[in-house]
Amino acid sequence: MNERIIRLPELSDEQFKVLGKPKEGFWLLLGGPGTGKSVLVMQRLKQLSASGDALFLAYNKVLHSYCQQVMRTSFGDNAMKITTSTIFKWLGEFYDEQVKQGRKLPKLPAAQSDYDIDYEVMEASVRASDHAKVNKGVYLVVDEGQDMPEGFYNFLVSVGFENIFVAADFNQTITERQSTREELVDALALSNNDVLTLKENYRNSSEIAKFSQFFYSDKSTPPSNEPTRVAGFIPTLLKCKYRLHAIKLILREADNDPRKLIGVIVGDHKDREFYISRLRTLGMNLENPRPTVATYKNSHDTVEIDFAHGGIVVLCDASVKGLEFDVVYVCLDSIWKIKSSVDEVAFKKSMYVNASRAKEKLFLLKNLQENRELMERLPNDPELMQIGNLDE
């Protein structure tokens, strides 16, 4: 049996206080990894579903799927009362509903992707439309809201939404279109009392939390308190000449306890395909049935990851926010290849997100090639990170 428990945990005192806030109005919930932001988002949705229209918006499809699975397990039939979507899918549907011009969203003049949306044009089109009819009673609940720009929130307010609850961690921004805390506060006209903070980390072991905190970079989200749970395992950097040695290590970890969900985090789709292929096909004697190896590529794919069962999940770092795994392997060379070409902060924020996905064990995988610049950006304290050689 490889079943896992993905039911929502009991709420802590600080989480109960957040849930006790009025349902109406604009709210911003801040908190570091593992503090229960998504837990509060889902509990808020359950609370709202009993008294009005609740709409859950997630930034990416993997987090959306994960939250759907948790809510079905935790809420039963009540989960069916909650409308859920990814942000951009909902935006297209909402825009078409208001202006009757199709779901294609207007782009900025210098747009480099479909996500570079001109929210001012959207606002003007909705205001000018004879079809516009915004349901002001809808409660919008947005998870990982820091990855949407200020213009998105200005648009929501300007077209008439009156109840918005946003969960965010500004240390976990993954796009160049994100908002700052100041911009989000301004867009929603929030007072200090409208900004709520979670401080306790319930996910990570003390060792993993300390390692993750090394990459903390944005003080606009207060750091979490250090967890008291000690796992007895210090995050470990494993150097290896051949990546197949890493594949065998991951398969052995999965075979040791089939109930564990193992996350393998890479920087791009080329490396994702490599790990997926080898983990599924490498010949190896295992004591248990071969673990399921799941992945997700892009917004055109459906998410077929079962978080209620153990196995291996291979994802690019842009898709892991809000998720948690029992054991995590971060493919360091792959992350560095992508993030170092942006800037130092991009690497730190990626590592902050990646490391904090792990509940029990955290491994970093690196080739034997000397990379002083990379090593200088990792902890050199043996109490934070151990170093080993996988080829020995």
TrEMBL record:
Where does the record place a coiled coil? none
**Gene3D superfamilies in the cross-refs:** P-loop containing nucleotide triphosphate hydrolases (3.40.50.300)
UniProt xrefs under InterPro entries: DNA_helicase_UvrD/REP, P-loop_NTPase
Give any GO molecular function from the UniProt entry. Answer: ATP binding
List the GO biological process terms. Answer: recombinational repair
The record, for PANTHER family, names:
ATP-DEPENDENT DNA HELICASE SRS2, UVRD / RECB / PCRA DNA HELICASE FAMILY MEMBER
Name listed for the protein in its UniProt record: DNA 3'-5' helicase II
Q: Which organism is it from?
A: Pseudidiomarina sp. PP-1MA
Q: What is the lineage of its organism?
A: Bacteria, Pseudomonadati, Pseudomonadota, Gammaproteobacteria, Alteromonadales
